């Protein structure tokens, strides 16, 4: 099978980010741009400079409370999310905790042309089966693409998360585990139906992440 990849890019320098993006898209199907790595003032400039490539980009603006680097006020972050939506990227990653608390934002994004990826992360553990299923069902009300990522402390944790793929739904599911114990789930998720897996260009920006070259070598 063809292993579809999305290179995660976390870069603070705008010009360097643009160069890395070009390299990433020459090797990978998609790229995730972590806008939370940038200064707030640089984000509109970068969006304008890379707009021709946004049709292949997952745009993410992760707050510190969700493991990201954005340290501004939450209303500022939501305003930037609205701005990114106007550029209509391939996907706009919005946290489940964000969209479920803000009905105005949910309505605005639903009315926009932008395709949403609703995400939820647990950086400490993998919840129980029932907790995962309940979370998944709540998340898919907001988007046709749902991403759930947890930390695996053992193989059974990763297997439990991957069981989400057995739920019959029209939604596209992206579910895998962080950490060495869940590393295999980053590849197995593709066999189970994930539209892509997140990779790095070199140094991983998430625990257990493969490089794009490692994954692409499996295609040969």
What does this protein structure show overall?
This protein has one domain (5-123, 184-219): Aldolase class I (TIM Barrel), CATH 3.20.20. Helices cover 37% and strands 20% of the residues. It contains nine helices and eight strands. Strands 7-6-5-4-3-2-1-8 form an eight-stranded parallel beta sheet. The mean pLDDT is 94.
What's the SSE blueprint?
Elements lengths: L4 E5 L4 H14 L2 E5 L8 H7 L7 E4 L13 H13 L4 E5 H6 L1 H9 L4 E7 L6 H11 L5 E7 L3 H8 L9 E7 L6 H8 L4 E3 L12 H5 L4
Parallel strand pairs: 1-2, 1-8, 2-3, 3-4, 4-5, 5-6, 6-7
> What about the largest sheet?
8 strands, parallel
Write the CATH homologous superfamily: Aldolase class I
Widest β-sheet, arrangement of strands = 7-6-5-4-3-2-1-8
Total of DSSP H or I helical runs spanning 4+ residues: 9
Approximately how much beta-strand content do the residues carry? Answer: 15-25%
Percent in helix: 25-40%
CATH topology group: TIM Barrel
């Amino acid at each position: 099978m063809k292993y579809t990849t999305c290179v995660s890019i976390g870069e603070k320098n705008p010009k360097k980010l643009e160069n890395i993006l070009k390299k990433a898209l020459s090797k990978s199907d998609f790229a995730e741009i972590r806008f939370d790595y940038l200064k707030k003032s640089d984000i509109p400039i970068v969006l304008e400079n890379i707009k021709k490539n946004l049709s292949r980009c997952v745009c993410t603006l992760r707050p510190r409370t969700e493991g990201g680097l954005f340290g501004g006020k939450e209303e500022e972050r939501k305003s930037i999310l609205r701005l990114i939506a106007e550029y209509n990227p391939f996907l706009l990653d919005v946290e489940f905790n964000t969209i479920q608390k803000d009905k105005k934002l949910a309505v605005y994004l639903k009315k926009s042309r932008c395709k949403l990826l609703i995400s939820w992360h647990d950086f400490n553990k993998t919840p129980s089966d029932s907790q995962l299923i309940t979370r998944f069902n709540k998340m898919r009300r907001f988007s046709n693409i749902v991403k759930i990522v947890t930390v695996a402390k053992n193989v059974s944790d990763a297997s439990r998360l991957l069981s989400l793929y057995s739920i019959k739904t029209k939604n596209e599911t992206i579910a895998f585990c962080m950490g060495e114990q869940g590393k295999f789930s980053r590849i197995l998720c593709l066999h189970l139906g994930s539209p892509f897996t997140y990779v790095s260009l070199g140094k991983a920006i998430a625990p257990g992440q493969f490089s794009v070259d490692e994954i692409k070598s499996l295609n040969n």
